[in-house]
């Protein structure tokens, strides 16, 4: 909100509510600090009296009004035209915006019985015995203004708030302020004024000749003047400007939105900054704390971090996913296994991303782990369900090799039943079940049993295992990543044309946006708002009846519910691939067990068996599975050590785009991935995305909420009290006047202002 | 007409805007701007105004800001700029050009001490440095006066008998940043008050040079013409006042503004906002029985010699308060007006508020206390009262 407003039009009808007990000329002095809005405060007071039909004159004491320095502003009021143009020395009303300013200078010249309005967090009682010859009002305008969000991220502006209290002291209704505020464009602050109007505490004059200095002090007297031609050597006195301040800045990390958005819990801003500063090895070291599958996620993650990236509001999100890939592809760093205080043996059932993540974390912490995998090899859906042109086998193998370098026993082709699960409890300290989703959903419509109608996941696994040949028209049903993978794989297997049928709109498709774009550029056609209601054919499917779908009312997820209409048309097809999602299957669970909060319970008895990944959460992405696997693994360790509760989140507040100083950054478009041309890639299972050509993209990261030692605070400090010190900065609090400029200018919100405790 | 709470900087810009729009049927308006404290707000406000025919040109220096005004004015536009202190010093060469080329540019000056050492506050030394260049100079004492004087300055500067630039001064911060109620005139009224700008030597379609070399007798003639035009200004200004009053219903202040001076034995003479504070002190002193009055010199160039001499007649003592100093002589106003007093009158100089010091009614009272015992006629000494 702009408080440095222009004077407004106040030529309207006067409000004739002249307060009682005023004598003229009336002189008001406002004491504040540069940046608190003292001049606007005096101007508002002038506007207030002007509305009452009085003559006004208002001005600031200019020249020393740098941020945080003590400044004064004046308003003079009279029934007749005001001639004199000097400052106010004998104030009838004193308004003090910052209680740390209180002292003889402020009270100088105040007449007995003067009105003194003080912005202070201390209540009226703390002033017992002080300022007894004044009519005293106290109000915590700073707290009120902060509550109402008035000011910048660094400094609270209290002028509009404290005037509510002033109106109360004058005995005028708050409504009088409305016109004054409206004329200066400050109507949004009226609620805060009302708050102060109600909250101000008032004490009447106790001793008319009380303790406050009156007319004989300091600036109320005219200074003696030396000879004009005399040459005075006037050494500036030692002045600890830090004594002025009521607030101090400090360096405080805040949560980057990418970090909060990452389902795996990666320190995204940490690894991106490390890449730019120290290279791939340092970046991978940070990634490997939470992320055992960087080669995989650097290729197939839906990257919620990029969706939440603050740079998106500026010139495009940082290409974080491809930076992760670049790091994984350019460092052979192996994680160092820690020594556990007490080594546990833990079984992990299922070798997909959640199981791998859980096993990795446990092994990293120095525990012995055994993985039981039903299939012939580790990887789960990464191995069987994601086509090679998106995730080459070697990329997955790099990650697996790194994980298996830790102390992990792997038992493949080990499909366990409920008895086996019970038995694991005897051999291991704990068991984590990460068996993923159950069988894929089918379609209960006429013709679904025809040859040529196949589950997409089965098709993708066949394609992974060896060459598959298709011809003619292929229809893919679904809108997720599996559907897109099926469609793109079908093209590569020789299909003449591939049509993807989805019952909602393009923007509702759960698949990664870039993947949809790639599919379209390769020739996949989208049939949106369509749903098959029957397949027909003689032995083999030869056509599908597609009904039109309309968007209905929004469901719990906020997406509009599809409503299938009677309108339908037939399309020819030679192959149908179903990608409709998967259900959860818990055949493994002994019949007398149940799952509560990721853990197995038998009646009131908690078992040392836990559940992680899609079989527990159903989130359906690799990155969610990794995060869930890690969190459950750590919870298991805490439980085994007898520690209760959850780890504290340590949240420090997210950095919103508005808290980034875009003006400190140059517009630089994102570095895009290199791609093989659509015509070349639609006939090949070679990886189609070649990734970034270098790590320069890391330089685009704003480093939201994390200091980069960019020196902006140091350069902007008007008093030069910030110095480099070690890996950060040191603030000389003796000379920091608390202006908040460093905090306001910090490009990345890595600083905070704090109230000084006195 | 509407009353608004405005700073004098904004008032000056508002008047310039109204004047500029009044020339929309002619060659329009042009402002050249470059910021300097404390006149920056005037330029900022001007930049925000919508003027249908004309533009505000942001330049790289005060010298160029006036250069823009010279070019615009020479081609018939109404031209305006504002500056302060060392900005005015840097602009000086082109102020000279505008004056010698007899172009009716109006320049608002928020008076500020010349540096270094740097001082942001009020002092008339910046404007008085340009005293002899051939610009009209006005010193104002309140917000309304700044608004009205900018309008009068355009009318006066563009008068065919005058035809020269005009400077409208306001004390930096004390007036430039003070906010009071200001009557803002309607465009229709300003249109009636300000006829379309007509410059006899306006550049047209035939190329010709302005300000080429001239020989001594030509310069002699030009100075004589310029001086004669200057001397006629007090008379022309009275006509402007009449016309202003007829249209706006209020009379702009006189070239020299007297306050309770007729029966005064002692006269306090000053310029700018000190003059307003003097009036307040006079009110206080009169209540105590002192026969004291005030004279505020509003028009400093040309100096209204006849009016000042008339006010000085019969006075025993005259105090001249200067917010400036001509080093080696004393206060500049004092230096100019002391010869206008009758023989035997004490004309004493006081320096006050130099470098922006706050001048209070109490200071004026102390001036009187110093002046009253001085009875001896003769060459007065300069003292430092405050």
Task: Describe the 3D structure.
The complex is a heterodimer of chains A (758) and B (386). Chain A has 758 residues and is α/β, with parallel strands linked by helices. Among the domains of chain A are: 26-220, 3-Layer(aba) Sandwich (Pyruvate-ferredoxin Oxidoreductase, domain 3), CATH 3.40.920.10; 247-253 and 707-755, Alpha-Beta Plaits, CATH 3.30.70.20; 345-438 and 584-640, FAD/NAD(P)-binding domain (3-Layer(bba) Sandwich), CATH 3.50.50; 453-578, FAD/NAD(P)-binding domain. Chain A contains 23 helices and 28 strands. In chain A, the strands form 7 sheets. In chain A, strands 2-3-1-4-5-6-7 form a 7-stranded mixed beta sheet, with helices on one face. In chain A, strand 18 (540-554) and strand 19 form a beta hairpin. The longest helix of chain A has 19 residues, at 622-640. Chain A is elongated and about 105 Å long. Chain B folds into 2 domains: 2-248, Thiamin diphosphate (ThDP)-binding fold, Pyr/PP domains (Rossmann fold); 256-383, Rossmann fold (3-Layer(aba) Sandwich), CATH 3.40.50.920. Chain B is built from 12 helices and 15 strands. Chain B has a 7-stranded mixed beta sheet with strand order 3-2-4-5-7-6-12. A 6-stranded mixed beta sheet of chain B has the order 9-11-10-13-14-15, with helices on both faces. The chains are: A alpha/beta (758), B alpha/beta (386). At the A-B interface, helix 1 and strand 2 of A face strand 1, strand 8, helix 9 and helix 12 of B.
């Amino acid at each position: 909100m702009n408080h440095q407003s222009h004077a407004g039009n106040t030529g309207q009808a006067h409000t004739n509510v002249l307060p009682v007990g005023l004598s003229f000329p009336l002189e008001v002095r406002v004491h504040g600090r540069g940046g608190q809005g003292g001049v606007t405060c005096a101007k508002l007071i002038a506007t207030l009296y002007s509305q009452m039909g009085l003559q006004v004159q208002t001005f600031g004491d200019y020249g020393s009004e740098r941020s945080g320095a003590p400044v004064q502003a004046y308003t003079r009021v009279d029934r007749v035209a005001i001639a004199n143009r000097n400052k106010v020395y004998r104030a009838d009303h004193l308004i003090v915006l910052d209680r740390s300013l209180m002292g003889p200078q402020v009270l100088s010249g105040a007449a007995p019985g003067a009105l003194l309005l003080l912005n202070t967090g201390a209540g009226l009682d703390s002033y017992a015995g002080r300022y007894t010859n004044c009519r005293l009002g106290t109000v915590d305008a700073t707290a009120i203004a902060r509550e109402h969000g008035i000011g910048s991220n660094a400094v609270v502006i209290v002028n509009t708030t404290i005037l509510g209290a002033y109106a109360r002291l004058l005995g005028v209704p708050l409504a009088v302020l409305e016109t004054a505020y409206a004329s200066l464009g400050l109507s949004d602050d009226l609620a805060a004024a009302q708050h102060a109007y109600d909250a101000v505490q008032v004490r009447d004059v106790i001793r008319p000749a009380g303790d406050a200095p009156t007319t004989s002090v300091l600036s109320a007297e005219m200074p003696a003047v030396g000879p004009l031609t005399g040459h005075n050597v006037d050494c500036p006195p030692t002045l600890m400007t830090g004594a002025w301040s009521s607030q101090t800045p400090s360096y405080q990390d805040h949560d980057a939105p990418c970090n909060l958005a990452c389902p795996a819990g990666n320190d995204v801003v940490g690894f991106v900054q490390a890449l730019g500063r120290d290279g791939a090895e340092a970046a991978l070291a940070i990634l490997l704390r939470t992320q055992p599958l960087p080669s995989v996620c650097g290729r197939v993650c839906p990257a919620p971090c990029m969706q939440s990236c603050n740079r998106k509001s500026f010139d495009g999100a940082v290409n974080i996913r491809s930076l992760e890939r670049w790091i994984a592809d350019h460092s052979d760093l192996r994680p160092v296994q820690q020594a556990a205080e007490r080594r546990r043996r833990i079984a992990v059932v299922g070798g997909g991303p959640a199981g791998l993540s859980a096993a990795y974390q446990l092994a990293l912490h120095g525990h012995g782990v055994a993985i039981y995998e039903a299939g012939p090899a580790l990887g789960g859906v990464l191995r069987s369900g994601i086509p090679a042109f998106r995730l080459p086998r070697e990329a997955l193998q790099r990650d697996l090799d790194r994980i298996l370098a830790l102390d992990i026993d792997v038992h493949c082709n080990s499909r366990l039943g409920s008895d086996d699960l019970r038995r694991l409890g005897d051999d291991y300290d704990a068991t984590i079940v990460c068996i993923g989703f159950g069988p894929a959903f089918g379609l209960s419509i006429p013709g679904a049993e025809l040859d040529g109608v196949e589950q997409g996941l089965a098709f993708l696994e066949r394609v992974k295992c060896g060459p598959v040949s298709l011809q003619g028209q292929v229809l893919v049903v679904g809108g997720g990543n599996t559907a897109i993978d099926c469609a793109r794989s079908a093209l590569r297997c020789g299909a003449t044309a591939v049509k993807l049928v989805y019952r909602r709109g393009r923007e509702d498709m759960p698949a990664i946006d870039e993947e949809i774009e790639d599919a379209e550029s390769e020739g996949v056609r989208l049939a949106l708002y369509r749903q098959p209601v029957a397949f027909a054919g003689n032995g083999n499917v030869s056509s599908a009846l597609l009904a039109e779908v309309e968007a209905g009312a929004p469901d719990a997820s906020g997406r509009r519910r599809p409503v299938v209409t009677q309108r339908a048309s037939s399309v020819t097809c030679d192959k149908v691939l179903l990608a409709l999602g998967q259900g959860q299957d818990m055949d493994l669970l002994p019949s007398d067990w149940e799952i509560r909060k990721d853990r197995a319970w038998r009646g009131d008895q908690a078992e040392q068996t836990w559940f992680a990944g899609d079989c527990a959460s159903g989130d359906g992405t690799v990155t969610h599975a990794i995060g869930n696997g890690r969190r459950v693994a750590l919870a298991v360790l805490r439980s085994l050590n007898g520690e209760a509760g959850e780890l504290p989140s340590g949240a420090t507040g997210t950095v919103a785009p508005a808290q980034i100083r875009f003006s400190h950054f140059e517009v630089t478009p994102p570095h895009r991935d290199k791609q093989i041309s659509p015509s070349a890639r639609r006939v090949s299972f070679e990886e189609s995305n070649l990734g970034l050509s270098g790590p320069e993209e890391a330089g685009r990261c704003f480093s939201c909420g994390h200091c980069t030692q960019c020196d902006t605070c140091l350069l902007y400090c008007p008093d030069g009290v910030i110095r480099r010190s070690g890996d950060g900065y040191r603030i000389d609090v003796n000379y920091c006047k608390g202006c908040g400029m460093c905090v306001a200018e910090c490009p990345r919100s890595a600083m905070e202002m704090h109230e000084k405790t006195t | 007409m509407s009353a608004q709470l405005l700073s004098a900087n904004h008032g000056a810009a508002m008047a310039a805007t109204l004047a500029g729009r009044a020339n929309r049927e002619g060659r329009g308006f042009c402002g050249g701007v470059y910021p300097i404290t404390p006149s920056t707000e005037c330029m900022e406000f001007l930049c925000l105004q919508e003027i249908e025919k004309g533009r505000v040109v942001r330049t790289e220096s005060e010298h160029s800001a006036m250069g823009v005004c010279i070019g615009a004015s020479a081609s018939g536009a109404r031209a305006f700029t504002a500056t302060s202190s060392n900005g005015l010093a840097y602009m000086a060469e082109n102020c000279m050009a505008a004056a010698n080329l007899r172009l009716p540019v109006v320049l608002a000056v928020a008076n500020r001490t010349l540096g270094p050492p740097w001082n942001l506050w009020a002092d008339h030394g910046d404007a008085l440095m340009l005293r002899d260049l051939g610009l009209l100079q006005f010193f104002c004492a309140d917000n309304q006066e700044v608004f009205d004087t900018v309008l009068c300055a355009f009318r006066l500067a563009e008068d065919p008998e005058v035809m020269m630039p005009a400077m409208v001064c306001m004390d930096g911060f004390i007036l430039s940043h003070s906010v009071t109620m200001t009557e803002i005139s309607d465009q229709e009224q300003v249109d009636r008050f300000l006829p379309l700008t007509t410059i006899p030597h306006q550049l047209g379609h035939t190329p010709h040079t302005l300000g080429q070399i001239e020989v001594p007798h030509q310069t002699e003639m030009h100075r004589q013409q310029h001086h004669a035009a200057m001397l006629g200004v007090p008379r022309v200004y009275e006509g402007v006042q009449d016309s202003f009053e007829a249209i706006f219903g209020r009379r702009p202040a006189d070239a020299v503004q007297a306050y309770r001076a007729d029966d005064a034995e002692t006269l306090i003479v000053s310029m700018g906002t000190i003059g307003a504070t003097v009036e307040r002190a006079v009110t206080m002193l009169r209540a105590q029985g002192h026969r004291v009055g005030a004279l505020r010199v509003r028009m400093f160039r040309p100096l209204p010699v006849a009016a000042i001499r008339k006010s000085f007649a019969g006075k025993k003592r005259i105090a001249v308060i200067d917010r400036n100093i001509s080093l080696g002589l004393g206060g500049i106003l004092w230096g100019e007006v002391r010869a206008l007093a009758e023989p035997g009158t004490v004309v004493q100089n006081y320096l006050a508020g130099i470098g922006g010091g706050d001048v209070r009614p109490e200071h004026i009272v102390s001036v009187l206390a110093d002046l009253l015992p001085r009875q001896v006629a003769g060459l007065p000494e300069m003292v430092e009262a405050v």
